[in-house]
Amino acid sequence: MNSSRFDRALWIIGRWKQLDASAIWSQFHHTGIPDETLVSFRSADINRTSIRASKIEEILDGAHVPSFEVLGDGFSFSYGQNAGQNYDHVFIKSNLAVLTPEFCDELISSTLADSLNFTQAHLVDENYQYYQNICDPLDFKALGLSMEGLPMKSNGLPFPLEQQIVDTSQNPGRYRLCQNYVEVAAGYMWFGDSFWKLIGRSSQCVRERLPAEVSLVHAECWKLRSQVGVFTDSCTAELQEGVRSALFDDVPPNG
Fold first, then answer.
1. Spatial separation of the C-alpha atoms in residues 209 and 242, rounded to whole Å
2. Contact 46, 63 (CB under 8 A)
3. pTM score of the predicted model
């Protein structure tokens, strides 16, 4: 589905079945959403519409909810457990006014930074990331986008499910779901101490390999910052690939 109604997305990745989604929601709610805001809440067993945002904490505290989604005017907050890749995730999508780098930094610093269950987080332009990762020809058709000249590859499925899909493996805004973490290059990224063990590379090694326009410092947790800010298009492709290379080059594929 086209994500154009959202400007930005914050991805938060943590240890499987260990990420405290309730605490993240609570901080997001109290700092970014008025109490009287009406939202809908959906999970496998609970479906409520037009309830006040302040009621979500009561739902989460009163029931075991392994995955859920909260939808409100101009934002979405979803939590899930990815057993295949062995991690939990929280996806927050909203507009530029809410998901500022400062807001995201405060959210992570106050809820996750010192947690052993926190792996990584990154802030992206939602539409740029979305279009950079479309591979299904049916999605291109639905969006009225041309596939002319785009590289293609097999989806790797056996006949009769095999088909040609768009090869996004060289797109600078691509992401790849790996075991325990996500491979991605973003202008703002946060890392827990466990992240370095997962990629088999030290923070110092990454810092030495990063482009000159990108910094990596430790304050509450490890924080990566690009001087150009959030990546919004392929004009910064070289910088994006520099970040990706510093973090993930030569890391054995495991996802």
1. 8
2. yes
3. 0.94
